[in-house]
Amino acid sequence: MTFSLLVGLKNNLVYTQYFYTQTRLLYPNIELVFVSFNSTDGTHQWLDSLQDKRVRYYYEERDRTLSDTYNKCIELATSDYVVFAHNDMVLAPGFIEQLTALQTDEQVLFYTTVEPPIFADDPRPGKIVRDFGADVAMFQRDAFFQFAQAEQQRNEQASQTAVTTSKGIFFLSASRNLLLDIGGLDPLFNPMFCEDDDLLLRFGLKGVEMVVGLNVLCYHFVSKTSRFSEEYVNRTRQIELQSNRNFVRKWGFRNSDHSKHKYDIGLILTNGTVAALWELEPWVSTIYTDLDPAAYILEEQPTTAVDLTKKIKPLTAERNSGVLVSIDAGKAPLDQITFLSEIIYNRINKPKSALKKFWYRLFPAFTWRGYRIRIIDPTTHETRLIHKKLTYA
């Protein structure tokens, strides 16, 4: 069983060098895969200077998405399994050995990160808040190693080195063939955010078991490559909003929604405005409207790879959607669109009496909060989104 550590780089050369040095002290022969798009701090020159046969790397002088970065890593890797890592990490002794004891082709394994209390109020499976330094200069490596050893011994004594989970995060290890099969990460999320939610959702739909490795430990300085970058500080809200909208465009629901079903929804929109389109467009597959969408498309198309000129159609266009929803933008509460998928699901699947079943067959259309909904084909399409072609450039 072999592993490759995949590391996307974007500047922060000090952290990359520290990650490399510390990893090589523990694992001189493990394959390291580095990919950098448009680093400007000497990262590319440093990669060229490495005299290490167990390093594979690639760089370009242009910006790409985080998905492109790790998809290129997957393509370059030669091991059976790949580990998504960051360069602002330090592996604990036993990291690879503990992975080896747990990893199988049929599961995705999330390793445990120990982090300083920067996002202490954001708990998740496989996260321990303990301060061993907020940066490389302040890092208490020996103290962290001692803590990791004690944590591993405690878990061994309790016979609990892994727990199953329905929630995960980017810090994962998986079969390279599995990632190639589903097409890796989706560059729809540009430049970042939501690509991990999308990937984990696809894993779940594929039926892959997800497990947290409690003894697979590393220290994480917390996103020195993104959250504290100038780009993040200046554009964080815009980037996150853009990625969340693209997630909804792809899936038809938010990742936090209870009901996760994608219907082929065609929205018949009258008395529309650009503001109404902005509110409604991501939540449906097609829009039929009497509004000229040119102004909206001009503004919104640069934020998405979805072709809005094909998605937004004239009111007179042929309608072949599985579910047709009619609203008057001047009367219906537009924000209720966020509940539409759940309302459709409940209408189809909620237990009902024989009389109601007969009534629904007789009158397939119904009105909910100003939305006139007609279910023609109740088929859901989320499983069609599991697989995609692996792309990285």
Describe the structure.
- With 393 residues, this protein is of the alpha/beta class.
- The protein has 2 domains: 3-249, Spore Coat Polysaccharide Biosynthesis Protein SpsA, Chain A, CATH 3.90.550; 264-377, no CATH class.
- α9 links the parallel β11 (265-270) and β12.
- The model has no long low-confidence stretch (mean pLDDT 93).
- It contains 13 helices and 16 strands.
- 34% of the residues lie in helices and 22% in strands.
- It is elongated and about 70 Å long.
- The strands form 2 sheets. Strands 1, 2, 3, 4, 5, 6, 7, 8, 9 and 10 form a 10-stranded mixed beta sheet that branches. Strands 13-12-11-14-16-15 form a 6-stranded mixed beta sheet.
Give a concise summary.
The protein has 393 residues and is of the alpha/beta class. Helices cover 34% and strands 22% of the residues.
Number of E-type strands: 16
Helix content: 25-40%
Q: In CATH terms, what is the fold-level topology of the largest domain?
A: Spore Coat Polysaccharide Biosynthesis Protein SpsA, Chain A
The CATH architecture classification of the largest domain is: Alpha-Beta Complex
Instruction: Give the CATH level 1 class of the largest domain.
Output: Alpha Beta
Count helical runs: 13
Order of secondary-structure elements: EHEHEHEEHEEHEEHHEHEHEHHEEHHEE
- Class derived from helix and strand content: alpha/beta
Poorly predicted sequence stretches spanning 5 or more consecutive residues: none
